[in-house]
């Protein structure tokens, strides 16, 4: 007992007496921290400082405030936005023949281009005072997604002017003169923009762009003018072949110091008319056969005045931060919208197809092998819609959640790939035979485009999500890094001492929380709700605290090497990502009014998210470079082993059976691909067959019963079966006609196009 008292006194003196603490703990810790501090490049530093911390910050701290999540506004459409969807978007859909666009025209038809321009499809984000629509991120996402259910090429054409590019950059950073000149023309389609960032030597590492702009004096419009001589070579630029105004990112240099003392000003963005002398618009690329405009642009010694820099000369060298802050549109809105559209289409058509397509005398949706894949499609679509809503909620709250949008970009495009692959497996020949009736083929072909652009997915996962999240979201590390960078060492140590005490308490709390929750199965953890989703909040608390303590130990042991341990960094980013996706799922369930028929989807999704998060933790611990620390982490996080399992077969079967019939739950995750008059794209055809066969389900049961009892032979062809049943008065003439009509629609739905020649 006396030894315990002495230990308590020693700890109290060590931490409570400032002079002792400073000498024994703070100064050695400060020296160690500066030694292991990861070096940051200028572009990394700008990326770290750009954007805001939002909900992901709560998930990183070990104790999420779930009431904050629930308080976020449910995304809704304004009357103007809803009217645009009901009218202009629906009209545009009737003008889209994607097979013709991709295989014959290799372009949108002229009348669709004109309609997009005239009706403001390219002005969704431009303020109303400049003639734009000024729609919310949620509306922007919904519009792009609805178009994408019918044509990826048309959707990409609409999304690019409303994503990273001149419109957004001008709105946020442009001078008043630039806004007055360009935004009204962009709003009505008089000007068509593109933005040139990537090139042969700069893709995901956009900060390394080799394109150069040199400050100099040359004659411009008859006068000697201070400006920039530009040389660039860009590729993969969407809309470049048809653009009238070019947004350009380049490295700006001032070797003669005409603007100040700095010779290398950094990445800068300028706006250049494509008819300007020296601007070259090259030939088109062929992005996986899709018909949206994509190509090259180049220029050599092209002179522009300084006031063509977006934001004016004062924004010289600030282009990288501008780009990082505005990437949220592409990463958080546009690409996730394409992925969500894939989910809606695959769920609507594959549930319908699985009900009407028969093999071995029964619908293929009754086979467990099909149900396994179909359950993934349905659950992933629920997840995609949930993540789309939560992510746009953050953007519409006027925050720039750079980590969240990186999570959305990576995981949602990967889920989009997953749903398409499963749908192709189930629909088989229907999916691989291209033609006007095929609603999967072009989306399947185009999916790698989303995986590749706005930062390649592999690098987004391994470098960005945890790399930025660990520092940005941690309640102490970024402040500690700032303290370590202070010039006044005395002030730096004092500041570090204040932070260190809080950091130690934070780490201790998370370690104890992780361990206690592991021992009790999270039963003692708090939850903001009761009922069927209560356990998920508790388990997420556990995983959040586990991620927090593992992050601290990783930074302590690996220091600057952590960012080079990309596989471990990626796995820990996966933990954060799964927590974010799970949060979106629970928020979606709450926003829907806790609908009972959503629960099969919620249970499947949440079980999968927690399973993947725990697996990522377990894999990171197993590969931890310090074996001693790995053992400690295993004791704290999984003292009784990892019991987070994948969804059960029973959960998959229950989910599928609930969706193989018309229902409100099915409508909630397929509404983006609603039918319209004259729809010949195949979606309406298979849905019509599904509804017709479901309406006749009691008649099919009557026929099966007659076959089982021996009144009718088994394995008769469908039409013969109907005729025999009519002859034997098992069905009435009206029922016979209903079955004939349902079967006619069934055959139309499962058939594919054929051609005289290709």
TrEMBL record:
<dbReference type="InterPro" id="IPR037069">
    <property type="entry name" value="AcylCoA_DH/ox_N_sf"/>
</dbReference>
<dbReference type="Pfam" id="PF09317">
    <property type="entry name" value="ACDH_C"/>
</dbReference>
<dbReference type="InterPro" id="IPR013786">
    <property type="entry name" value="AcylCoA_DH/ox_N"/>
</dbReference>
<comment type="similarity">
    <text>Belongs to the acyl-CoA dehydrogenase family.</text>
</comment>
<dbReference type="InterPro" id="IPR050741">
    <property type="entry name" value="Acyl-CoA_dehydrogenase"/>
</dbReference>
<feature type="domain" description="Acyl-CoA dehydrogenase/oxidase C-terminal">
    <location>
        <begin position="317"/>
        <end position="457"/>
    </location>
</feature>
<feature type="domain" description="Acyl-CoA dehydrogenase C-terminal bacterial-type">
    <location>
        <begin position="471"/>
        <end position="755"/>
    </location>
</feature>
<comment type="pathway">
    <text>Lipid metabolism; fatty acid beta-oxidation.</text>
</comment>
<dbReference type="InterPro" id="IPR009100">
    <property type="entry name" value="AcylCoA_DH/oxidase_NM_dom_sf"/>
</dbReference>
<dbReference type="InterPro" id="IPR046373">
    <property type="entry name" value="Acyl-CoA_Oxase/DH_mid-dom_sf"/>
</dbReference>
<dbReference type="InterPro" id="IPR015396">
    <property type="entry name" value="FadE_C"/>
</dbReference>
<dbReference type="Pfam" id="PF00441">
    <property type="entry name" value="Acyl-CoA_dh_1"/>
</dbReference>
<dbReference type="InterPro" id="IPR036250">
    <property type="entry name" value="AcylCo_DH-like_C"/>
</dbReference>
<feature type="domain" description="Acyl-CoA dehydrogenase/oxidase N-terminal">
    <location>
        <begin position="100"/>
        <end position="189"/>
    </location>
</feature>
<keyword id="KW-0274">FAD</keyword>
<keyword id="KW-0560">Oxidoreductase</keyword>
<dbReference type="Pfam" id="PF02771">
    <property type="entry name" value="Acyl-CoA_dh_N"/>
</dbReference>
<dbReference type="InterPro" id="IPR009075">
    <property type="entry name" value="AcylCo_DH/oxidase_C"/>
</dbReference>
<protein>
    <recommendedName>
        <fullName>Acyl-coenzyme A dehydrogenase</fullName>
        <ecNumber>1.3.8.7</ecNumber>
        <ecNumber>1.3.8.8</ecNumber>
    </recommendedName>
</protein>
<keyword id="KW-0285">Flavoprotein</keyword>
């Amino acid at each position: 007992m006396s030894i315990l008292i002495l230990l308590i006194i020693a700890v109290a003196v060590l931490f409570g007496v400032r002079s002792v603490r400073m000498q024994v703990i703070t100064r050695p810790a400060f020296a160690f921290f500066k030694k292991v501090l990861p070096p940051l490049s200028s572009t990394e530093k700008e990326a770290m400082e750009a954007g805001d911390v939002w909900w992901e910050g709560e998930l990183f701290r070990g104790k999420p405030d779930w009431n904050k999540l629930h308080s976020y506004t449910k995304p809704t459409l304004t009357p103007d936005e809803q009217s645009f969807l009901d009218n202009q978007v629906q009209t545009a859909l009737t003008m889209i023949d994607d097979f013709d666009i991709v295989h014959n025209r290799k372009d949108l038809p002229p009348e669709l281009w004109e309609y997009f321009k005239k009706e403001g499809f390219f002005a969704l984000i431009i303020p109303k005072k400049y003639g734009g629509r000024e729609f919310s991120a949620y509306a922007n996402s919904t519009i792009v997604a609805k178009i994408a259910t019918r044509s990826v090429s048309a959707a990409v054409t609409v999304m690019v002017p409303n994503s990273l590019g001149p419109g957004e950059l001008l709105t946020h950073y442009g001078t008043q003169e630039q806004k007055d000149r360009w935004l009204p023309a962009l709003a009505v389609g008089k000007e068509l923009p593109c933005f040139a960032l990537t090139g042969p030597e700069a893709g995901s590492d956009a900060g390394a762009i080799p394109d150069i702009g040199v400050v100099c004096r040359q004659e411009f419009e008859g006068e000697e003018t201070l400006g920039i001589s530009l040389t660039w070579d860009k590729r993969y630029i969407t809309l470049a072949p048809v653009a009238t105004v070019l947004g350009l990112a380049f490295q700006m240099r001032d070797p003669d110091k005409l603007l100040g003392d700095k010779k290398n000003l950094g990445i800068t963005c300028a706006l250049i008319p494509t008819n300007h002398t020296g601007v070259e618009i090259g030939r088109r690329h062929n992005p996986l056969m899709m018909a949206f405009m994509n190509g090259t642009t180049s220029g050599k010694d092209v002179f522009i005045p300084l006031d063509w820099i977006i934001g004016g000369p004062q924004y010289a060298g600030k282009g990288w931060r501008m780009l990082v802050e505005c990437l949220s549109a592409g990463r958080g809105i546009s690409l996730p919208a394409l992925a969500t559209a894939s989910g809606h289409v695959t769920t609507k058509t594959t549930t319908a197809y699985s009900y009407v397509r028969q093999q071995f005398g029964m619908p293929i949706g009754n086979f467990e092998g099909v149900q396994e894949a179909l359950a993934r499609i349905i659950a992933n679509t629920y997840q995609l819609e949930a993540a789309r809503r939560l992510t746009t909620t953050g953007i519409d709250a006027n925050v720039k959640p750079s980590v969240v949008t990186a999570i959305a970009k990576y995981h949602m495009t990967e889920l989009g790939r997953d749903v398409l692959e499963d749908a192709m497996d189930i629909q088989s020949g229907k999916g691989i035979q291209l033609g006007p009736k095929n609603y999967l083929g072009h989306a399947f072909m185009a999916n790698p485009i989303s995986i590749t652009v706005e930062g390649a997915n592999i690098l987004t996962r391994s470098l960005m999500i945890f790399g930025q999240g660990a520092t940005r979201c941690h309640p102490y590390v970024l402040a500690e890094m700032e303290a370590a960078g202070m010039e006044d060492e005395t002030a730096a140590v004092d500041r570090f001492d204040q932070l260190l005490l809080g950091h130690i308490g934070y780490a201790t709390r998370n370690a104890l929380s992780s361990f206690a929750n592991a021992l009790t199965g999270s039963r003692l953890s708090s939850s903001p709700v009761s009922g069927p989703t209560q356990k998920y909040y508790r388990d997420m608390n556990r995983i959040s605290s586990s991620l927090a303590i593992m992050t601290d130990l990783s930074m302590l042991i690996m220091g600057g090497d952590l960012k080079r341990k990309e596989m471990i960094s990626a796995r820990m980013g996966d933990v954060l990502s799964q927590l974010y996706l799970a949060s979106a799922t629970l928020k979606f369930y709450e926003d829907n009014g806790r609908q009972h028929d959503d629960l099969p989807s919620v249970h499947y999704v949440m079980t999968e998210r927690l399973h993947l998060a725990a697996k990522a933790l377990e894999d990171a611990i197993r590969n931890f470079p310090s074996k001693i620390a790995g053992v400690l982490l295993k004791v704290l996080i999984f003292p009784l082993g990892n019991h987070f399992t994948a969804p059960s077969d029973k959960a998959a079967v229950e989910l599928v059976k609930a969706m193989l019939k018309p229902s409100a739950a099915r409508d909630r995750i397929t509404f983006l691909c609603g039918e319209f008059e004259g729809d010949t794209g195949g979606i309406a055809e298979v849905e019509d067959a599904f509804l017709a066969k479901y309406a006749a389900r009691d008649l099919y049961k009557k026929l099966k019963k007659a076959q089982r009892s021996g009144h009718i032979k088994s394995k008769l062809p469908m039409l013969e079966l109907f005729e025999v049943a009519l002859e034997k008065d098992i069905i009435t003439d009206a029922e016979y006609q209903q079955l004939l009509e349902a079967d006619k629609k069934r055959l139309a739905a499962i058939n594919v196009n054929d051609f005289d020649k290709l």
